[in-house]
Amino acid sequence: MNGNASAPLPAPVRQPASARWYHGLSFRLFGFTLAAILFVEGLIFIPSASGFRTAWLNERLQAARIAALALDASPSRMVSEELAQQLLENAEVLSVAEVEDDMHIQLLDSDMDIEGSYYQLDLRETTPVRRVMQVMGAFAAPKDRILVITAIGSTPDRIIEVVVPQAPLRKDLYAYGQRILGLSFLIALIAATVIYVLLHFVVVRPMVRVTASVEQFRMDPGGWTRRLQPTSRRDEIGRAQNALSDMEEAVADAFRQRAHLAELGTAVAKINHDLRNSLASAQLVSDTLARSEDPRVQKAAPRLERALTRAINLASETLDYGKAAPQPADMQPVSLRGCVEEAAAEALAAWPEVEFIDDLPSARIIHADPEHLHRLATNLIRNAAEAMVAAASLPKRITVTLTREGMEFTDTGPGLPPNARDNLFKPFAASSRKTGTGLGLVIARELAVGMGGDLVLASTGPKGTVFRLILPDLVV
User: Fold this and answer.
1) CATH top-level class for 332-470?
2) What whole-number distance in Å separates Cα of residue 170 and Cα of residue 53?
3) How confident is the model at residue 400 (pLDDT cuts 50, 70, 90)?
4) 24-30-36-40 Cα dihedral, nearest 10 degrees
5) Is-contact 230 245, C-beta < 8 A?
6) Which residues does the UniProt record annotate as the domain Histidine kinase (predicted)?
């Protein structure tokens, strides 16, 4: 291999799609906030510019009034031409006149030629709306416009008339607008940045973590590489994060439990296989012993055979329940009575003392899975026989009848104890016998559900127990 060959560059790490979406949303909110603040500042600018224009005009009027007072202090209200020009320059106006008793008195007049269009502006009769309209017109007014401003003079009975070029006002308005625009943009930028940072840390980052955990859960529910930690936040995001954290913990525990159960199931299957082989060998020995003429052996052999049969059935039930799912039902026409009698013959082989009464109609054909129905009936009849024999019930009788509600299995046993009734159809919890597992009823109900029906406890008590099988085709 060439030693000068460079190692391949690692693939660039790309952000999850959800993270890019949330960041894009933050930037869009940033732009929206910036535009909204600038829009509001624009609405505020018009009244603000109107106030600036009014202040500008009042400054010129005040300067003109001061110049008029200077004339009042001079003899005959006359000043030299040089002083008049200086007063006009200080006031930044072109001319000043007063109207008193319908007499127009020119106080100060510029020696410059005034050219342009005149615009009358009476500040004595103005409103906020009119001032706003006038300031908007000032931006679009021609540069050579001359303002003729009329206002109250040096005394209330006098009217002052001031001639001012509009070009300086327009220039100052544009400068004021630029300052306001810059300041507004700076304020909007700061506000939008603050909102963006708050959204990023308060909303975006937590939602990115939550969404990443959800996506990771979707891709690999059982292979957590990181956990979403609970938060002390009490808002909707905090509640969602805490709920997701709890769900992650519950799912992780469930997957760990499933893995342990899978390992346990594999071990049980292996043990069951070896145990059944050993029990089969023991059963062969038991059959050989049963042929012995020794009275003691003949007395003990049936008990040994029943014990071996129960052990084999226990191993079979445990293995059947450990399967991931029962085989799907193969629905076909089945002779109800024939199937139940065959199941009873198999279930009661070890208990010949138990009487079996079949009250089912001989010609009744139903639509069911024959294997499922056989196993279901075998489990129910075997459980009833074991309960009656263990309790030494008299008489020992199992009756199968067909009612309007379904097929009922009735025994004459002592009834189910409270613990068994409370944990009915729960594996390893509902058995009334010390050596039982409670799997027979669990498997029977699974088979009934697989055929579209159900298995329920109809009644139980000192006189016996009734289980009812409900199937769609069992209605009389």
Assistant:
1) alpha beta
2) 9
3) very high
4) 180
5) yes
6) 270-475
> What are the phi and psi torsion angles at 220 (to 5°)?
-150, 85
**275 CB contacts (<8 Å, ≥6 apart)?**
311, 315
Residues in the chain: 476
Residue from 63, 76, 49, 81 nearest 162 by CA: 63
Question: DSSP 3-state helix, strand, coil percentages of the chain (rounded to 5)?
Answer: 55, 15, 30
Q: Can you list the alpha helix ranges (DSSP code H) found in 78-165?
A: 81-91, 128-140
Place of tokens 């769609």: 472
Q: Report the C-alpha gap between 196 and 36 in whole angstroms.
A: 14
Those residues with Cβ within 8 angstroms of residue 379's Cβ, 6 or more apart along the chain or in another chain: 317, 347, 440, 441, 443, 444
Are the C-beta atoms of 390 and 433 separated by less than 8 Å?
Answer: yes
Q: What secondary structure, in 3-state letters, does 202-229 show?
A: HHHHHHHHHHHHHHHHHHCCCCCCCCCC
Residue 195 CA to residue 128 CA, distance in Å, equals 35
Which pair of structure tokens corresponds to residue 454?
A: 């159900």
- Give domain limits for the chain: 25-189, 236-323, 332-470
Tens-digit pLDDT profile for residues 300-349:
666 566 666 656 666 665 666 555 455 678 889 999 999 999 889 888 88
List the beta bridge partners of residue 410: 399, 466
Phi/psi of residue 282, each to 5°?
-65, -35
Measured CA to CA, the distance from residue 464 to residue 470 in angstroms comes to 20
